[in-house]
Amino acid sequence: MEFENIILEREGDLAIITFNRPDAMNALNMQTREEFAKAVREVEEDEEIKVLILTGSGKAFVAGSDIKEFRATTPYAAHNIVRLGSIVEKMRKPVIAAVNGFCLGGGCEIAMACDLIIASEKAKFGQPEINLGIIPGGGGTQRLPRLVGVCRAKELIFTGDIIRADEADRIGLVNRVVSMDQLMPVAKEIAGKIAVKSAAALQLAKQAIGKGLQTSLQDGLDYEYEMYALALSLEDKAEGVNAFLEKRSPKCLCEGAKKLVRIKTMGNMGNKVARIPNLVDWSTGEVRLMSAKCNSCGTYFFPKEHYQHRPDCPREKVEDVLLPSKVEEALKDGKIEWKKIQAIMAGIFIYGGNAGHLSGQYLESIFGETGVPVVNVYNACATGSAAIRMAYNSVAAGETDTALAFGADVSPKGFLTAKSDNAVQDRDVIRWKMGGMPNPIYWALECRKRMAKYETTEEDLALVKVLMSEYGSRNPHARFKKSYSLEEVLNSVYVCEPLRLYEICPVSTGAAALIVTADKELIANADRAVKINATTMGSAIYGDPTIRISALSCPAVAEAPMLSESYSASRQAYEKAGIGPEDIDVLELPDNSSWHYLVYLETCGFCKEGEADRMLREGMTKIDGKIPVNPSGGFSSHGEALSAQAIWQ
């Protein structure tokens, strides 16, 4: 990518980012912040890069925020400013700040977020925000006391004084001071020493140090032990020890970095604690999760931070950026003005607080409040479907001519957890606190039942992912575009046996919108008007043998179909549309896991029970097959954004 205000260079396994606005003392304006964030992301995703050096051109490293632009910054806008220090600090790779000159305000905050600071003798440091009537806003009040002590930090922040490099060295703010002509050579020399070390061990050490600064000494020691134990399990340890004993230089210590492990601890089950390693594939941003088994009950447990994908946009920007952009696209696609919308059916953003619960009104406040009816709905995984159905019924009943249905969601980091900690008000708390059962456990239990009853194989489950990843790789809107082979899927770790990592969709960020209308003029003007023949909803039928999420039991004897709510909804749809499953040309179904892909084919009548595996093996569900299934790539390629998923599919 081309940058204007920074320079990104690569020298072997080293990357150098130079702030390059010398005429403005490399002051941080919005463009520079965005370019820097993108450059850091590029470095983070480049597996060939081991160490990053930050420096500045001209007389400054970074002299702070651009005051001209800063003058117009409002409290609201401040929330959307990219926090560069946090971006640097969260990098898994070591970062060295080579401070060449003025390092003030936001520049000092970026430097303090680095792992090492090498300063030239001409460097100057300070947090002078107090002189502008404000305080540091990029980590200065938090990182500075941790580096130099509370008293010295308060003195620097309260007075706004600027200190020279030798004083910064004396108080422990920098690692060393060198002459200007030696600044980059010394920084590169240190980077070279670091780059040949085990990348995995470096990441674990960095993580342990960072974690320890945020917790008690005892918790930090416990975390360090977990990181140490994890390092012992990686390939790099074996190679390093063998090389030492054989008196040779170690070979490439890079394999362990591909399986960076974050160990989390789950809550207690009595006195039983499950400790679980997360294996992270940083090339895709996907987390490979290994399961741990509780010896007391045989149940598999998983950490709450499962599937930590880099979000498409920060949580605070969902309603402000992502959602409006999708509604605007729908309006543009249909050639419809906002004032033509006569009703809004909004899928609730359940984890979004008040704005998320009133997402329809929030959207109106952005596009313009016109007094039309707004209904906010939450119906779990069917939230988007419910919004579409209400929009359709509003138009079909003649209540309105044109209605909008939309949904937006940012899932919590990890599983879709309970919405509170109050077991009296929220019974879902019980399955989390007492049962330790996130959603994939339910799916895995059902999958085991299927394998025993219909001889579904692990290859069948893996083949679903192979197909979905192939389609996702062709879809420009898919979030995960890597195409996987059968071998790669079968070699991915178990999340909950028999379901492997690549056979379960991650939680995700997303938004979608569509417009339902009976206005003949609008229909004629639209590029791709699609007629809705039926939109239905169903609920469970008594005797359904499906193990229900939030419940810990199911009927002993099946008296109704699996996933009977979908069975009911599909039969209603066939009846209303006057067609059968044999008349369907394309099928999009919710493939939360490979098991879902198979069972929905049977539940919705596309084959008899137990025959979905054969359909899959014989290619009948491929794009050129009898019934193309999920040509979009499905949840597997997009992730599950709860209230948006039915609408985008």
TrEMBL record:
Locate the Thiolase C-terminal domain: which residues? 565-643
Q: Indicate whether Heme appears among the record's keywords.
A: no
- Signal peptide feature range: none
Q: Which SUPFAM superfamilies match?
A: ClpP/crotonase, Thiolase-like
Do you know which PROSITE patterns this protein is assigned to? ENOYL_COA_HYDRATASE
Its top-level enzyme class, in one word, is lyase
Q: Taking every annotated instance into account, which residue ranges of this chain make up the domain Beta-ketoacyl synthase-like N-terminal?
A: 367-411
Which branch of life, at top level? Eukaryota
Question: Does the keyword field hold Lyase?
Answer: yes
Q: Which GO terms describe its molecular function?
A: acyltransferase activity; enoyl-CoA hydratase activity
Q: Cross-referenced Gene3D superfamilies, in alphabetical order? A: 2-enoyl-CoA Hydratase, Chain A, domain 1, 3.40.47.10, Lyase 2-enoyl-coa Hydratase, Chain A, domain 2
Q: Which GO terms describe its biological process?
A: fatty acid beta-oxidation
- EC number(s) given by UniProt: 4.2.1.17
Keywords on record: Lyase
Q: Mind telling me which InterPro entries this protein's record contains?
A: ClpP/crotonase-like_dom_sf, Enoyl-CoA_hyd/isom_CS, Enoyl-CoA_hydra/iso, Enoyl-CoA_hydra_C, Ketoacyl_synth_N, Thiolase-like, Thiolase_C_2
Q: Which family does it belong to?
A: Belongs to the enoyl-CoA hydratase/isomerase family.
Q: Indicate what this protein is called per its UniProt record.
A: enoyl-CoA hydratase
